[in-house]
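Final report, Chapter 2: Outcomes

The project's central promise was a pipeline that accepts a single protein chain and returns its three-dimensional structure in a standardized token representation, suitable for archiving and comparison. That pipeline is now operational. To close this chapter, we reproduce one record exactly as it appears in the project archive, with the input sequence first and the structure output second.
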Amino acid sequence: MTSSDNRGRRGKLDGRGLRVAVVCGRFNDFITDRLLVGAERALTQYGVASASVTVAWVPGAFEIPLLAQRFAASGEVDAVIALGAVIRGDTPHFDFVAGQCAAGLQRVQLDTGIPVAFGVLTTDTDEQARLRAGDDDTNKGFEAAETVIEMAGLLAQITKADR
């Protein structure tokens, strides 16, 4: 084992051949639209064919896990990107929606073995959300796409090693 092997396996940012579903929440779509642009930019940059990307919109963040689960269990995709924006308001609604969305998406990936990236912003203000949905590589949609590409590659490596 070389010293680089001691660092463990890592997924590569190579999306060639990947089939990806992107599930977007329409609520706060002034942010989610920008996250989607970032995700699509990263998918293209890392070689995911546009014909291999399915985008679907749900009413809000609370509904994202259900559609993510359907995609992940379908056998038609290798990864799912969840995009949304939950912005704190004057009621505790934020706490319930954000927490349940996160828990649901975690359950989807653990139950199906398909990587699901949590690209759902949970911010206190519109301005914080806008800063995380900018036009550069710090866009959280871009980062979510990188995450599923890396995880899909890592899972493929482990599956091959187990044969």
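Archive annotation: The mean pLDDT is 93.
This record, like all others produced under the grant, will remain available to the consortium after the project formally closes.
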